[in-house]
Amino acid sequence: MSESVKERYLIIHGHFYQPPREDPWSGVIDRQDSAYPHHDWNARINAECYAANTDARTLDNHGRIRRIVNNYVHISHNFGPTLLSWMEKQDPETYARIIAADRLSMAANDGHGNALAQVYNHVILPLANTRDKRTQILWGLADFRARYGREAEGMWLSETAVNLDTVKILIECGVHFIVLSPTQAEAVRPLKGGEWQDVSNNSVDTSAPYLVKCGEGSLAVFFYDMDISKSVGFEHLLTSADNFRNRIIAAYRDEA
User: Fold this and answer.
1) Cis peptide bond upstream of 37, omega within 30
2) pTM, whole model, 2 decimals?
3) CB 256 within 8 Å of CB 8
4) 3-class DSSP assignment, residue 32
5) Please, which residues have CB within 8 angstroms of residue 30's CB and are 6 or more apart in sequence?
6) Which residues lie closer than 8 Å to 46 by C-beta, 6 or more apart?
7) What is the mean pLDDT of each run of 10 residues along the chain (256 residues)?
8) Longest dimension (CA), the chain
């Protein structure tokens, strides 16, 4: 590698979740006219997003397909248990490709899969009592284990909401890392000690992982890039792969 070329690292995380839409009496989802031409919004979003990411097209400069890629093999991601329960029955092919992608990512990353667990019912954990926090975490981990055939290393928290009681239970349940918003960081300091640096104004360096110590344990934290995340979710950044790439490159710090 030339000395003028810097090696860069990038984590793209996809959070995928749908709430239970089944009628409590029939156990099936009623037709939702607003999801036309699909039967309901689970089916529409699945076709446009979840299934589409299992066979994404990579195009050349002339718009011709160069290859078809299962994106889940290459990105960090989590699926809500209620969504996977629906998908397992309604689109078993996509479901199988998502599970298989985790196994392929494990082979490429020294046994570490791309998939993260998620708290089971999308409960905002800081608002729950201690028993419900533990239940939601344990159910999410158990669902992940049953589907992926391995223990989850990371867990997605609903709305990334967290407090120290939640951190304590996550550590006790064997979770190694979580993903948070940069607005949730108040202060940071080097692992070996030193002065605390105020980052409460959304200035935390999102290019580095952090460690939250709680009791005798600790939990790793990754803060996502809020500006890029907002552009992906609400400003249609993904309509252009070139624009997405350029936006990511621009986010790297010169000293990185």
Assistant:
1) yes
2) 0.91
3) yes
4) coil
5) 23, 40
6) 87, 90, 91, 94
7) 69 94 92 96 96 90 88 97 96 98 96 97 96 98 98 98 97 98 95 91 92 93 95 91 90 67
8) 65
